[in-house]
Design a protein that fits this description.
Helices cover about 65% and strands about 0% of the residues. By secondary structure, the chain is an all-alpha fold.
């Protein structure tokens, strides 16, 4: 179990595999790590109130990790995971809290579109030109 956690932290810390897959494989690595962190909370004695939110977040993350999705869908579903994690509250378990914190970081990156899809910048919030002077 400790080895598995170390592997998850390595994936999220170093930006993913060096398999020549570019940004897409990094997204896949982060989706896998997101799911693994949330799945790990299911094995912990977490507070009942947090458990339902964590379970739903894990289900959404599992779907993202197992099924290909376009960048917009990844951002939307990662945003849902992020909201669920923020609503989960106190888990009452330190190990679960560490997994939730790591999952929050990953979900936030994915929801913001950091490195998701092609170049990670679809220009949706920029409005293009005219950034002010």
């Amino acid at each position: 179990m400790v080895v598995r956690l170390a592997a998850l932290l390595t994936v999220s810390d170093d930006g993913g595999r060096d398999d020549g897959g570019g940004p897409g494989s990094n997204t896949e690595d982060r989706l896998d790590a997101l799911h693994e962190h949330l799945a790990a909370t299911a094995e912990r004695p977490v507070a009942r109130a947090a458990s339902a939110h964590l379970g739903e977040a894990e289900a959404v993350a599992r779907d993202l990790a197992e099924r290909p999705a376009d960048p917009d869908t990844v951002r939307e579903r990662a945003g849902h995971v992020l909201r669920l994690l923020r609503e989960a509250g106190d888990t009452e378990d330190e190990a679960a809290d560490r997994h939730v914190a790591a999952a929050l970081d990953l979900a936030e990156e994915l929801a913001e579109g950091d490195g998701v899809g092609g170049d990670g910048d679809d220009g949706t919030d920029d409005g293009g030109a005219g950034g002010g002077s």
